[in-house]
């Protein structure tokens, strides 16, 4: 079997999702129409490439790039964030027209579009010149095999945010290991304290990262064999992690509120949780949600992510986006210059991290003393980058994602819900996810190893 039926199956499935999502109408944002820009083009004699991106400071970032670049100009449009943008991109892929030259994609979505031949391998378009701008972990996240399908922008090295007032009141210190985390949670509960943390069903990507930290390798995929994929979602490491969190839920040590909801944020503000396991983008998210203000001011700190083996730490990541060149681009080399150059200059990077919009993966920022030594206001002046986030980012090794990541996340969300209800054990949840995703992969034409 060649790869065309497989790509068609994935494309058809994604298109059906896109049509449902877009059925309520709305502007397509202009697609590849370079006359429909959010920004002004200052150098009108230069060729123009189009870009879809959603960060709130993209207007300043694009202006910075266009003012500095004498080879190409970028016409930027925001067609929506995350799923909204993906639906529009999938529709353009299926129609064979309407995609921009460059599209912002979360790293775990790159294989979904790569397998449809919707993205360009940019390794021959200047990769060698910028390779040292990022570490091996980010490059692996945007690669499929040896081919490079995106330029990393930001990431989410994981850490442990905690309430200093709660820790001080109940005499606990930041746990170095997950065993210590459970012990501290029990100590706080026994003393009548708040929940120690939370397991929401709506954070499957976080759960995948925590399983990888334990040693899981969810997927193995070689684009040279596009019909074959390794799926191991119920190995012992994956089961151990789900069993661990299921045990914390059963013992009443942590909550089960969906995260990123008003109810959860209210709980964080009211001190209902002693810790928050999250990524380096969390301070910006929490600040925007109103956490750390008023009576909460100065009560939060951050520590390294607890480890399964303190002597052999493993750093993992949750989230992160990239700029990818689309197959529909008629100017792929110029599009690659834009992908490499946008959000790569010092002014744009500094704007991103000072305003807590991104956690940059570019080495220009990660090695910048101003970034490293930053006293983070949300953490009451703690040098969180130096102490926690930059070391975690530097140690991150990268992940192999699957071409059907969203289906996997949906399957994991369902089983996390069952785990929270007590309907299944963690091991049973892992087995169910394995069965569900394996069946789906075979239906899409894969041979599952």
Automatic annotation (TrEMBL):
<dbReference type="InterPro" id="IPR050490">
    <property type="entry name" value="Bact_solute-bd_prot1"/>
</dbReference>
<keyword id="KW-0732">Signal</keyword>
<dbReference type="InterPro" id="IPR006059">
    <property type="entry name" value="SBP"/>
</dbReference>
<dbReference type="Pfam" id="PF01547">
    <property type="entry name" value="SBP_bac_1"/>
</dbReference>
<protein>
    <submittedName>
        <fullName>Sugar ABC transporter substrate-binding protein</fullName>
    </submittedName>
</protein>
<feature type="signal peptide">
    <location>
        <begin position="1"/>
        <end position="23"/>
    </location>
</feature>
């Amino acid at each position: 079997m060649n790869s065309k039926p497989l790509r068609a199956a994935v494309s058809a499935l994604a298109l059906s999702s896109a049509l449902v999502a877009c059925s309520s109408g709305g502007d397509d944002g202009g697609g590849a129409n370079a006359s429909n820009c959010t920004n002004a083009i200052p150098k009108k004699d230069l060729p123009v490439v189009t870009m879809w991106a959603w960060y709130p400071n993209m207007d300043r970032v694009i202006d910075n790039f266009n003012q500095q670049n004498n080879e190409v100009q970028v016409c930027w449009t925001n067609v929506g964030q995350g799923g909204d943008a993906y639906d529009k991109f999938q529709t353009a892929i299926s129609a064979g027209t309407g995609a921009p030259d460059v599209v912002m994609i979360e790293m775990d979505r790159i294989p979904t579009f790569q397998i449809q031949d919707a993205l360009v391998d940019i390794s021959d378009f200047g990769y060698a010149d910028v390779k040292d701008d990022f570490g091996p972990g980010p490059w692996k996240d945007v690669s499929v095999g040896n081919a490079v399908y995106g330029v990393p922008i930001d990431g989410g090295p994981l850490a442990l945010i905690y309430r200093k007032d709660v820790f001080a009141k109940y005499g606990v210190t930041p746990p170095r290991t997950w065993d210590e985390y459970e012990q501290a949670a029990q100590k706080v509960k026994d003393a009548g304290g708040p929940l120690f943390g939370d397991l929401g069903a709506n954070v499957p990507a976080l759960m995948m990262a925590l399983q990888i930290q334990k040693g899981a390798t969810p997927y193995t995929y070689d684009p040279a064999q596009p019909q074959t994929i390794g799926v191991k979602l119920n190995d012992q490491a994956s089961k151990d992690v789900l069993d661990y969190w299921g045990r914390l839920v059963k013992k009443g040590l942590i909550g089960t509120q969906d995260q990123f909801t008003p109810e959860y944020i209210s709980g964080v503000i009211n001190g209902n949780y002693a810790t928050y396991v999250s990524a380096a983008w969390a301070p910006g998210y929490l600040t925007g949600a109103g956490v750390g203000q008023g009576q909460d001011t100065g009560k939060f700190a951050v520590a390294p992510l607890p480890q399964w083996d303190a002597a052999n730490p493993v750093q993992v990541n949750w989230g992160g986006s990239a700029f990818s060149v689309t197959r529909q681009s008629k100017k792929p080399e110029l599009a690659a210059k834009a992908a490499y150059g946008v959000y790569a200059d010092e002014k744009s990077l500094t704007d991103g991290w000072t305003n807590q919009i991104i956690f940059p993966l570019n080495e220009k920022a990660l090695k910048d003393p101003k970034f490293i030594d930053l006293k983070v206001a949300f953490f009451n002046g703690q040098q969180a980058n130096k102490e926690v986030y930059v070391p975690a980012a530097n140690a991150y090794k990268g992940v192999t994602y699957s071409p059907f990541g969203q289906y996997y996340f949906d399957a994991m969300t369902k089983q996390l819900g069952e785990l929270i209800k007590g309907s299944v054990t963690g091991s049973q949840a892992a087995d169910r996810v394995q069965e569900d995703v394996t069946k789906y992969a075979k239906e899409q034409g894969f041979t599952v190893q």
